Amino acid sequence: MEKSKKIKIFVGIFYLILLSAFLFIIFSKxxxxxxASYQFIQLYLAYFLDFKNTNLIFVIIVFIIATISWxxxxxxxxxxxxxxxxxxxxxxxxxxxxxxxxxxxTLLYIFVNYFFKNLIKEKxxxxxxxxxxxxxxxxxxxxxLFRFIGGIPFPxxxxxxxxxxxxxxxxxxxxxxGIMPHLYIMVSLGxxxxxxxxxxxxxxxVVDLLFLPEIYIPIISFILLVIITGLVRKVFFKx
Length: 239
Known about the structure:
Layout: H1 2-29, H2 32-36, H3 38-54, H4 56-73, H5 77-88, H6 90-115, H7 117-128, H8 132-137, H9 139-149, H10 154-159, H11 168-178, H12 180-199, H13 206-210, H14 213-238
């Protein structure tokens, strides 16, 4: 337990150093008003997209590494999906974001399974004991449904399979395909925002945004997906 605490402290300090360095680099070159302005976003997004078009493989590798680091830091999906759509568009963005998130979640799972398994059991086993038989029944299928259905925050969902010794291959593939429908919707929203920024000198109002197909189609799709996964969750956990 003492060893686990030391590792947690080390990882926490490492992340704080990385975050502080990133913020220092940004704000040493620009002030907050510049960074928050629409013209700044429009200019540097165009510059970055041009760079991406000529250095696609490099940008993909950096994005995946950054996504893996982000999963270890906070584990929130939406910023990764949104930025993936902003940079790579709907289809490629969905694929790359799914790869990065799945790799990050899998590496975190291996890390937690090795160092913090007893702690995870202590914190979560009594709440999720009912999932054990489902994982053992068909590990891959349940891993896929576990990711697709959702309902559990992604950072916690990354850790729970450690309770049931899920095979690493099943964990990765189940995560990759299970999160893809949700990712596609969020990535589509990021891709839509990129087109809006590219085509408008000033950012549209909230009302105007809601009537743009780049925005309302992903929102409606998200609502439908929530309804579908909610129905599936009820049927699945009832059985």
